[in-house]
Amino acid sequence: MTHDLAALTDQALAAAKSAGADNADALAFSETSLSISVRQGALDQADRSEGVRLGLRVMVGQKQACISTSDIRADALADLCERAVAMAQVAPDDPYMRQAAPGSFATDVDAAALDLRDGSAEPEAALLQTRALDAEAAAMDVDGVAQIQSAQAAFGASQFHLATSQGFSSGYGRTSHHVSCVAVAGEGTAMVRDHDYDARIYFDDLRSPADIGRSAGERTVASLAPRKPPTGAFPVLFDERVSGSLIGHLLGACNGSAVARGATWLRDKLGERVLPSGMDLVEEPHRVRVSGSLPFDGEGLPTSNRAIIRDGVLQGWTLDLSTAAQLGLDSTASARRGTSAPPSPGVGNVRLTQGPHSQADLLRDMGTGLLLTSLIGSSINATSGDYSRGAAGFWVENGQVQYPVSECTIAGNLLDMLGGLVAANDARAHISRPIPSLLVEGLTIAGA
Questions:
Q1: Residue 345 near residue 335, CB atoms below 8 Å
Q2: CB atoms < 10 A from the CB of 269, how many?
Q3: Which residue ranges make up each domain of the chain?
Q4: What long-range pairs does 300-304 form, CB within 8 A, spacing at least 24?
């Protein structure tokens, strides 16, 4: 399915102007996806979808409204724009509403340099089914695995185009390939499950389905017969699979929307140390063959590397044009948007400084504590940073894993937790957020 998304956005902008909008921006998005799931050696489910969607933001004075549609006929677009303008006319004034000006646009956009599209043909459904079957078979070959909850292989291709009434117009596309497997061991109330997956821009970069399935099975069997850990204050090592959640909380607290509302535990920490000395957190929007890369933001501003934290010190907030105006600052080209809402600040690729030691080294050094591999639920106080989550993983004594644990809670304060992080060296380089295993001292564990 092929659509001229640039022409579609131009048509939408023209219709918005004819309907009475002072300014507008249009986002057109097309997507094709194919997913194959298997169970017990046979096809379980096959899903395919194709579609195009248009999002339109119209501005009348300092008022705005957003509307989206999948009906892209010319007469339908005209009706859509009239409704959008009518909505904007009765909306409250937004003194911080902004559009990027022509002198600030991303120019000479070279999306091809980011290598976000696999140039090979869309994989056949039969090939995806074979990959899913291979993952399932490898998981079932692991001693102790009782069944496979799901094994799936999927493909997606999308194209995106943004145009504004100020003169910006550009777009790019990306592909994605995915294989996953969820294995089950035990039975009844003693049943446990775990998973593994891989997702890449290029099909040829995927780990083998057998490796993914085997890993899912081994992880599941290792978690059989869990106990509750002891209650008390212990070090907790966040495995690389879940360590990104800690950095996600940090990024959320740096978000301009939260800062403008005063709803962040970092509100008074700009220019102060929030991570250990020597540790950087850097946004890298131009990494090649990485899903979170993008040549321009959701308002047409050029993206570039940006230090969020340098040598442990908080450098600045994550801002789009609106939140920057609220705070009297400049945008960090961090606008993200979908088809049904105005831009808002967000972060894609980020990289945290890794340490010199392996996860095994950190386990040895922590002595007795929890190796955390799964988080359940969340209770995070946005203004104080108080942190509490359900957890599961493995109990460690004398630096060695002793037994699996579940049904426990870990609690602390994010400022204290992040300020004392010790990073391992096991981050996966190809993912959007390569965050290594992270050791946190002195969390409260509520268990047995």
A1: yes
A2: 15
A3: 5-221, 226-448
A4: 300/100, 300/104, 300/105, 300/106, 300/162, 300/164, 300/166, 300/168, 300/170, 301/100, 301/104, 301/105, 301/106, 301/331, 301/333, 301/335, 302/105, 302/106, 302/107, 302/333, 303/106, 303/333, 304/333
Please write the tens of the pLDDT for every residue from 208-252: 999 999 999 999 999 999 999 999 999 999 999 999 999 999 999
Mapped onto helix, strand or coil, the DSSP state of residue 13 is helix
- pLDDT, tens digit, for every residue of 329-372? 999 999 999 999 999 999 999 999 999 999 999 999 999 999 99
**5-221 topology per CATH:** PmbA/TldD fold (3.30.2290)
Q: Where are the beta strands (DSSP E) in 297-368?
A: 306-310, 313-314, 335-336, 344-345, 350-352
CA–CA distance, 208 with 212 (Å, rounded to integer)? 7
| Cα–Cα distance measured from residue 10 to residue 6, given in angstroms and rounded to the nearest whole number | 6
Structure token pair of residue 423: 């990073």
